[in-house]
């Protein structure tokens, strides 16, 4: 391919040929390293409050409903911003989203660490979710658009690995920081251990925004915008770093793409585009995007998509209703055991969390000190959740009964060790199911609607997270059995949906 490109240097080359000429080298290593903090930041945003909640409730006097709301607000921000971020990334570019999104998210996480009451913490975590949704969604496309066919299949594996690493780093940080007694005052503001932990968790977002300053815009995006001059310059930079040669020696001199060349207008070497023209192009793209939704509301895709949305909604509601509350449950179990409680069953723990808004000083001290120890266990469970997707091809949605059985077993456990073992099995089984849904959807839906469908699937999953974390405290206050019956009902509904979802996973992509 390289020799052919050099022999025909004056002929335009498509993106795949151009990126293949750049090879794989130092630039690719740098862009992969730059993606790690961005992917890690998403894990931190979604899960950090799970680890600090038992400590924060000691200082903010949180009720069980407050805890559910705090878990839900981050996902609420993600839901609201999903489509706008996608539009911005496809209109303005990937690089600006990664830079500005990283800095903004780090800023709001730092603001959350300065919170002195529940309302402030809730507001800043909402903005955290609102912002982090953009960089996380864009970074996957950004990585894929800098790699050719040979290396692109490994991008999703790399993304899964980074998310798993983030899932391990977060509990390790909590294990190190949260048991350490920290208290200092600045003016009238008090800062404690959990606030320091949140401040440290802003580092991946800030680092991501900083590292992407040194990276070029995606050449594929620039070509789709008709800006071939900047696309060629971006490819030459990659070639220079990977091949250790001058930019001028890059064998491809012209690029081709279905989009007409508008380099002169964009770069200002010709007549620059007016504000009205840029707005008109953005409006046209926005309308075209909605036109792509039309087939989703017709047969056969309407029925299939509704099944997939409902199935994923139920799955993620069950998973995150349990996963995000497990650190709190572990901390309560250990505190009750340390204080000599006779009954440390799941029912006793739920009753304790539901009815004991304020505890005596000794119980508060023990719970706040012990939360970090069990949080490390949660990291291994998150690891099983993320890596379960690597093996989803060997399973099917009928793993849901196994998850249902594991969830039912949680009702009968009496020790934190058994709780950890049963919940790990439950999270792994449900992780396989959720990942299988994503993989199946890629095959089921055609290219023009595939991205939007995947975006909507993730949105319904986040809606499930919000709903689950708002409803679970209500059921916990009703009785011990109520939350288990509710979650078992949801999983049974998911199982019924899976029975009617038939797909040939060996079919060609549409």
List keywords for this structure.
510 residues, mainly alpha, Growth Hormone, Chain: A, two-stranded antiparallel sheet, 2 strands, disordered N terminus, disordered C terminus
Q: How many separate helices? A: 21
Give start-end ranges of low-pLDDT stretches: 1-6, 371-395, 505-510
Instruction: Quote the average pLDDT.
Output: 75
Strand order of the largest sheet: 1-2
**Terminal Cα separation, in Å?**
28 Å
Please write the CATH class name of the largest domain.
Mainly Alpha
Q: Which percent range fits the helix content?
A: over 70%
| CA-based gyration radius | 25 Å
Task: Label the structural class.
Answer: mainly alpha
The coarse overall form would be: globular
> What is the CATH T-level topology of the largest domain?
Growth Hormone, Chain: A
Total of domains: 3
The main β sheet shows up as: 2 strands, antiparallel
User: How do the helices and strands follow one another from N- to C-terminus?
Assistant: HHHHHHHEEHHHHHHHHHHHHHH
The CATH architecture category of the largest domain equals Up-down Bundle
Q: Tell how many strands the DSSP assignment holds.
A: 2
Strand content: under 5%
Oligomer: single chain
């Amino acid at each position: 391919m390289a020799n052919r490109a050099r022999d025909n240097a004056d002929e335009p080359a498509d993106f795949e040929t151009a990126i293949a000429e750049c090879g794989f080298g130092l630039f690719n290593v740098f862009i992969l390293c730059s993606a790690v903090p961005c992917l890690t930041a998403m894990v931190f945003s979604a899960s950090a409050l799970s680890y600090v909640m038992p400590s924060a409730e000691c200082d903010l006097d949180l009720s069980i409903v407050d805890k559910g709301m705090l878990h839900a607000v981050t996902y609420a921000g993600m839901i609201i911003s999903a489509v706008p971020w996608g539009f911005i990334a496809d209109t303005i570019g990937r690089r600006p989203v990664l830079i500005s999104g990283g800095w903004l998210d780090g800023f709001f996480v730092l603001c959350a660490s300065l919170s002195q009451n529940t309302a402030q913490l809730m507001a800043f975590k909402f903005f955290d979710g609102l912002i982090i949704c953009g960089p996380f969604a864009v970074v996957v496309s950004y990585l894929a658009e800098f790699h050719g066919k040979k290396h692109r299949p490994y991008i999703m594996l790399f993304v899964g690995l980074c998310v798993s690493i983030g899932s391990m780093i977060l509990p390790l940080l909590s294990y190190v920081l949260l048991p350490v007694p920290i208290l200092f005052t600045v003016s009238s503001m008090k800062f404690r251990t959990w606030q320091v932990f949140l401040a440290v968790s802003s580092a991946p977002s800030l680092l991501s925004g900083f590292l992407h300053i040194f990276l070029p815009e995606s050449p594929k995006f620039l070509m789709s915008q008709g800006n071939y001059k900047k696309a060629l310059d971006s490819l030459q930079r990659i070639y220079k770093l990977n091949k250790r040669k001058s930019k001028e020696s890059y064998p491809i001199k012209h690029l081709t793409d279905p989009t007409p060349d508008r380099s002169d207008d964009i770069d200002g070497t010709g007549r620059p585009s007016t504000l009205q023209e840029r707005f008109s192009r953005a409006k046209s793209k926005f309308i075209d995007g909605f036109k792509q939704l039309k087939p989703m509301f017709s047969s056969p895709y309407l029925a299939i998509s509704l099944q997939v949305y409902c199935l994923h909604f139920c799955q993620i509601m069950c998973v995150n209703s349990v996963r995000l509350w497990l650190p709190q449950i572990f901390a309560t179990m250990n505190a009750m055991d340390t204080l000599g409680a006779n009954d440390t069953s799941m029912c006793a723990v739920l009753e304790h969390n539901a009815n004991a808004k304020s505890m005596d000083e000794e119980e508060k001290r023990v719970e706040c000190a012990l939360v970090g120890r069990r949080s490390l266990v949660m990291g291994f469970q998150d690891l099983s959740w993320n890596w379960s997707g690597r093996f989803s091809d060997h399973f099917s949605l009928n793993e849901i009964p196994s998850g249902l059985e594991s969830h039912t077993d949680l009702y009968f456990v009496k020790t934190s060790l058994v709780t950890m073992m049963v919940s790990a099995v439950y999270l792994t089984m449900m992780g396989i199911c959720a990942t299988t849904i994503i993989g199946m959807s890629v095959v089921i839906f055609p290219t023009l609607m595939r991205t939007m469908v995947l975006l909507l699937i993730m949105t319904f999953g986040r809606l499930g997270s919000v709903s689950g974390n708002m409803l679970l405290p209500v059921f916990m206050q009703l009785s011990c059995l109520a939350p288990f019956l509710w979650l078992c009902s949801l999983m049974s509904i998911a199982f019924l949906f899976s029975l009617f979802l038939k797909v040939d996973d060996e079919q060609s992509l549409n």
